[in-house]
Write a structure and sequence with these properties.
258 residues; alpha+beta; 2,3-Dihydroxybiphenyl 1,2-Dioxygenase, domain 1; 2 domains; 8-stranded mixed beta sheet; 4 helices; 17% helix; globular; Glyas_Fos-R_dOase_dom; VOC family protein
């Protein structure tokens, strides 16, 4: 079955040291990196168990001088990239890369939401199903979390664009609610208010690991920084929020094993 409009279908790391990123995530998550066939942009693929789960590539020329830092971005499936991009811009988003074709892969565009959070939209060239987001598998993304300046406005924006629905919510005191996002009959992530002293508004993607403590040790042992956790969350699993040696923020989720 092809992915639905509004599904997360791919994850991509923009970095200033692709070789170092391949070593780091290989040690922490168990990903294998390889060059993407036919790419002239230095694009590479992260895979695990024979399945591709994401990509990574050097930051575009001039991006660092313009203030862009290494970051993880998500791709959201749409039926029509051109129409979706125009709709996003009409609703207060900004287009940073116009709808563009990648031969044999699909058509995509890069935009930011009205709060300034960057993401991609994409329509694949074939009707295969992406399993980059799969909460049952280690090495795949298990959770998509948006920290933003205006959670209610952001939620309304994404609901209108992608058909997401409000699920349950967990009160967080002065921070408001941790609002779960449902799509296609499952909970895919959450929206929350950005902490005043935290990073800029952004999506954080949590990748599944077999053992959260082993993964945390690998993060620290290979030059990354843990900002939060390991902390238990509903479901009896644990999370950490970390940054890789180049500064890109990501999350990990998994059980604690003796």
């Amino acid at each position: 079955m092809a992915n639905r409009h509004g599904d997360f279908i791919w994850y991509e790391l923009l970095t200033n040291d692709a070789d170092a990123a391949a070593r780091f995530y290989g040690a922490v998550i168990g990903w294998q990196g390889r060059a993407a066939e036919g790419s002239d942009r230095g694009y590479r693929i992260f895979g695990i168990g024979g399945t591709d789960v994401g990509g990574f590539m050097p930051l575009p020329d001039g991006a660092e001088r313009a203030g862009m830092r290494p970051t993880w971005l998500g791709y959201i499936a749409v039926e029509n990239v051109d129409a979706a991009a125009a709709d996003i811009v009409r609703d207060g988003g900004v287009q940073h890369m116009p709808p563009t074709d990648i031969p044999g892969v699909g058509r995509f565009a890069m935009l930011t939401d009205p709060q300034g959070v960057m993401f991609y939209i994409m329509r694949g060239a074939i009707d295969g199903t992406s399993t980059s987001f799969d909460q049952s598998k280690v090495g795949h993304c298990n959770w998509n979390e948006l920290a933003t300046t205006d959670p209610q406005a952001a939620l309304a924006f994404y609901r209108a664009r992608f058909g997401w629905e409000k699920g349950d919510a967990m009160p967080m005191g002065e921070m408001g609610d941790y609002q779960f996002i449902d799509h296609g009959g499952r909970t895919i992530g959450a929206v929350m208010k950005r902490t005043p002293d935290g990073p800029p508004p952004a999506w954080t993607f949590y990748f599944g690991v077999e053992n959260i403590d082993t993964a945390a040790q690998a993060v620290s042992g290979h030059g990354g920084t843990i900002h939060y956790g390991p902390a238990e969350v509903p479901g009896g699993v644990f999370i950490i929020v970390a940054s890789d040696p180049q500064g890109a923020i990501f999350g990990l989720v998994g059980p604690r094993k003796a």
